[in-house]
Structure formats: C-alpha cells, structure tokens
Write a structure and sequence with these properties.
The complex is a heterodimer. Chain A has three helices and no strands. By secondary structure, chain A is mainly alpha-helical. Chain A has two domains: about 30 residues; about 60 residues. In chain A, helix 2 runs antiparallel to helix 3. Chain A is flat and about 45 Å long. Chain B has one domain. In chain B, a hairpin with a 5-residue loop joins strand 5 and strand 6. The longest helix of chain B has 29 residues. Classes of the chains: A mainly alpha, B alpha+beta. The interface between A and B is large, with 38 and 35 residues.
C-alpha cells in the first residue's frame, strides 16, 4: 500500500487542513473580514470543490485518461475561478 | 562620524501572525497537492483494477441488499418461446450460411430448421454469408498491420490452451449425476447455510462473482446449440434436476480488454470461468447431487444473461450484456445447474434500465451497428433490447486479433476501474430516481472518455484503421519485442 492510501497520509492532510484553517482565520482578521457561521461553510465547500477537482485530474492521469484529465482541469479551473470570485465578494459583505 | 548607532536596525522581524499566515498558505498548497497525488495513486493503483485480480470474494463488495427487488427488470409481455439453439445462436447457424455462400445455395433449398429461420430473417442470411469473404479480406491486409497482433494472438491462444474435459454425449440423466456406486446425496442442514458454503467454495475455485437462483425453464434452449447428450433435432425436455442455477465467472484482464477489439480476448476469462464451473460441478457431485456446467465456448444448453439477472448479479444493458455493479459488463459467466437445495438471491435494480435509456454509448461505438439505438422490443415474449447477432458476428470477422469484438464492453460507462471517481458515479446513478445524474454523467462520459470512430475499428482492407478503444499494454506491443 502506498503512502497516499494509508491513514498516515490522511492524518497529515488533517494537520495541514487545521493549519490552513487557523491561517485563514488570521488572514481574514487582518483583512477586516468578519467570518460568520455561514461564511465558514461556504469557504469549506469551495475548498472541497477545488480539492475534488484536483483529485479527479490526478486520478484521470493515473488511469491514463488524458482527455478526461485535461477537460477536468479546464472545467475545474473555470468553475473554481468563477465561484472563487463569488465567494470572495460574499466574504467581504 | 557614523558609529552605527543611527543605522536602521537590519534584523528582519517576522511576527507570529505573518508566520501563521505563511504556514497556512503553504499547508493549503501542500494539502491540495497531496490530494492530486493521492488521486494519481488511486488512478494507477493495481488494486483498483476490476480485472481478474479480485480474489476470494473481496471484489463482490456492492451492497446488493439495498437494491434487491422482488421481480427482475425484464417484462414478460405475452406468450413466451424458448430459443432455438440451432438457429438463434449465431455460432450454430453460421456454418450453414457459409456453405450456402460457397455453393450458391438459396434459402428455399436449405435444410430445416435453417430454411424456416432464414425465411423469417432473410437479412441474417445475407449477413451470415459474408463471413468467409470478410475473413479473406482481413487476411489480405499488409504484413505490418497483421504482425502487430502476433503477441495478442499468442496470448489469446495460450489462455484457451487449458480446458476441462467436455461433457460427453451421455444424456443429462446420466452425465449430471455422480458415478454409479457413489453414496446417496448428503442431507444438507439448511438451504441458507448451503448457499453460503457454495458461494465460499466458488470463490476458492476462482470465481469473482457468484449468485444463485431457481432456474426459469424459459431460459433453456428449446433445441440444443451443441450436442451435450441431447439429440440435435429433438426438443429439450428440461430435466427435473435442473432446479437451481449457480452463476459464476471472471472478468477479462483489464488492459487488453480496454484495447479491444484487436488486442483483447475472451479466452482469458472464458478459460477461468470454465475451470470454476467444472470444479464447482465436481464439488456438488461429491455431495451426492446432480450438477452440470454450462460454460463459454458454446457449451451451453441455456441462455446465461437472464439467469444472471435472476441471480441478482446485475441488470441486462442495451448491449444485451448483464452489467454488474462491481465489474460493469466485464464479466464472462458460466452456470452450474443442480438439484442441491440452496437459498436463492433476489434480483437487483441499481439504475441500469434508466441509464441505458439515455446513454446509448455502446450503440454509438458499435462498429457493426448491431446494438439498437431504439426502444426495447418484444423478443420471444419478453421486452428487451434487441441485438442483431449477424451484424455483430460479421464484425468479428472484419478485424485482426482474437475472435470477438468486445468494444461495447470497453465503452460501457459501467465498465470502469474501482476507484473513488467511478464508485461515486455508480452510487450517484444507483440512488438517483430522477435520472438527472444519468444525463449529466452520460454527457461527461462522451466528452471526457471518447472512443475512436466506429468505422476505424475495421481492418484497413475494409476501410478502417485497425483502431483499438485504447492503446494496448506494453506487453502486447509486438513491435517492441519481435523483429517485424
């Protein structure tokens, strides 16, 4: 079993995610953005979407399906960009 | 004088907040990159192959109980008729048409039952007569094109090299039962426990999926397709001891299957499924019960797909192949009929009928146009998609490589590797009663996982490009190993 399938990988991912969340909170405070109960889930969903898109591209490359990887990257990037702008504007409300 | 006291302090101060933000940003990048790498690993991981790597039942992991239904999906719409194995099985009738093509024999001069069959299906006569000519044209292809498949053909032949001794010509009332002088059947304690035992030993014998059902006599050929103790032109009276049907089988190896129609072969799965079925029949006979294997390679007395549906292994798709949740349609089954009392499995419904209505990828990729793009029709009293077997078999003779095509198996969206992408898609389609996800996923399948043009699959001498659905694996690329 490779490192990326084992529990240790997900433990490390969890630590990195926790650190990223703390940093996001600090950054938001510096920017004067007040994070509220609905903003947190919105950001989490956006990051999850980004993560799933990247994982899909990686999986498709691993399968040898380069068309799927390329189209997945394009669609993921476009959707993440558009939704990212929306999320940013909502964060600043 | 510059004493250094007035110089600005050169020490760079990094406050904790800045450090935290930088660390968080780095973590985010690392975390997302890790997801990409994890995805890459999931994609290439040999453990995710739904080829013949499934061992000891671990591949049969779909929760069938959630999708069990009381009645199978096929609809009985009128008086039913058992299939005539002499004429409605392409392999049984095509020799007659080939001979007719050579001699210039017309339909009205053929012997029965072929005369009646071709009078009702004159189009099939025209298609079936073409086989020999198609093979001849393929043989005229350039050495460069033909020699590309030397390794694939050697592999296909090797996979068919080991085969159990076929059932002889004794009637099933003799050949299906233990040898004379054997003990009488052991009294089994509990049908549910017996079913569990049979499934366990089937996995040990090498099956990847197994299901048990009562045998519906409608699925037994009216007349035999091959002599296995039956007289050729006498109707089969379904033996009383063919009470239950156990479906076993294996998938084809993934990489060659995905490079069909030229590099793949049915032999790898056929030979394994045959061995499983014969082992299982032998085991059951040692318990004192009757058992008869029906195996690929045209050694069947019955139709396997509806038995697979009854046994809860999957649903029959548009291409007429049964789609299983674990392996898609990459599953080559065999059946053992027996009178060993067992608990049976229920059929399942996991969204295939609804998906196949809108998908049609198999029909669009089919090189011969044998798969219907229309609605279901009534075939021998049951509503199902019709497959034009003569067109299908003609394409088998229009390409290089091992006998058979299998493009529909490779192209089917259900035939995918077992990783999180395709497992998620399967669960979404299985649990979506609205059909919205079916259309979305079909659209994604067509754009993200395209295949060659159907005409490209033909041999070059028949206007094609000797295309395969995907590139062959490294070990079947003849040009890398043999001086051509």
């Amino acid at each position: 079993m490779s490192f990326f399938e084992g529990g240790l990988f997900w433990f490390v991912e969890g630590l990195l995610a926790a650190l990223a969340i703390v940093a996001l909170r600090t950054w938001a405070q510096d920017k004067g953005i007040r994070m509220s109960f609905w903003k947190w889930p919105m950001v989490v969903v956006w990051v999850l979407f980004l993560g799933v898109s990247i994982a899909y591209v990686g999986t498709s490359i691993g399968e040898g399906e380069m068309d799927a990887a390329f189209l997945g990257a394009i669609c993921g990037a476009v959707m993440a960009s558009i939704s990212g702008v929306v999320v940013w504007r909502l964060l600043r409300m | 004088m510059d004493t250094g006291k007035d110089r600005p302090d050169r020490k760079v101060r990094v406050d904790r907040r800045t450090l935290l933000k930088a660390a968080g940003a780095t973590s985010a990048v690392l975390g997302l990159s890790g997801l990409g790498l994890s995805g890459y690993q999931a994609g290439r991981d040999p453990d995710s192959y739904t080829g013949c790597e499934g061992l000891q039942g671990s591949a049969q992991d779909f929760d069938r109980k959630r999708f069990a239904v009381d009645r199978p999906h096929y609809e009985k719409v009128g008086p039913t008729r058992r299939a005539d194995g002499r004429t409605e099985v392409i392999f049984s009738r095509v020799g007659v048409a080939r001979s007719a093509a050579q001699k210039g024999t017309k339909i009205e001069d053929l012997d029965e039952p072929f005369k009646s069959y071709y009078e009702q299906h004159p189009e099939d006569f025209e298609f079936d007569k073409q086989n020999s000519e198609l093979r001849r044209k393929v043989a005229e292809d350039s050495p460069e094109n033909k020699n590309r498949y030397i390794l694939a053909e050697a592999w296909a032949d090797a996979m068919g090299a080991v085969s159990p001794r076929p059932i002889g010509n004794d009637p099933p009332e003799t050949s299906d039962f233990p040898r004379q002088g054997s003990h009488s059947p052991f009294k089994m304690k509990d049908p549910a426990a017996t079913a569990k035992l049979i499934k366990k030993v089937s996995y040990e014998f090498g099956t990847v999926l197994v299901g048990i059902t009562k045998l519906n006599p409608d699925w037994v050929y009216k007349y035999p397709s091959s002599r296995r103790g039956f007289a050729r032109d006498e109707p089969i009276e379904v033996p009383k001891h063919w009470e239950y049907a156990i479906v076993v089988g294996t998938p084809m190896s993934w990489d060659p299957m995905y490079a069909n129609p030229t590099y793949g072969t049915s032999n790898d799965a056929y030979s394994k499924s045959r061995i499983v079925a014969f082992r299982l029949a032998s085991f059951i006979k040692r318990l004192g019960y009757a058992a008869r294997p029906h195996t690929p390679g045209n050694s069947y007395d019955l139709m396997v797909p509806p038995i697979m549906v009854d046994a809860g292994l999957g649903e029959q798709g548009r291409h007429s192949i049964v789609i299983t949740p674990e392996l898609g349609c990459n599953f080559r089954p065999a059946v053992v009929t027996t009178n060993l009392p067992m608990a049976t499995d229920k059929p399942i419904a996991f969204g295939v009928q609804e998906f196949c209505k809108t998908c049609k990828i198999c029909a669009e990729q089919c090189p011969s146009g044998a798969i219907s793009k229309g609605d279901k029709e009534v075939v021998r009293g049951y509503r199902r998609y019709r497959l034009h077997s003569s067109k299908c078999f003609n394409f088998w003779n229009s390409k290089h490589g091992s006998m058979g095509c299998r493009v529909c198996i490779a192209a089917c969206p259900y035939t995918r590797k077992s990783n999180w992408v395709h497992k998620t898609a399967l669960q979404v389609t299985a649990n979506d009663p609205t059909g919205v996800s079916h259309k979305l996923l079909t659209g994604m399948q067509k754009r993200f996982y395209p295949g060659p043009e159907p005409s490209d699959f033909y041999a070059a001498t028949l206007g094609g490009k000797n295309a395969s659905y995907r590139e062959p694996p490294w070990w079947l690329k003849t040009e890398d190993f043999i001086e051509l």
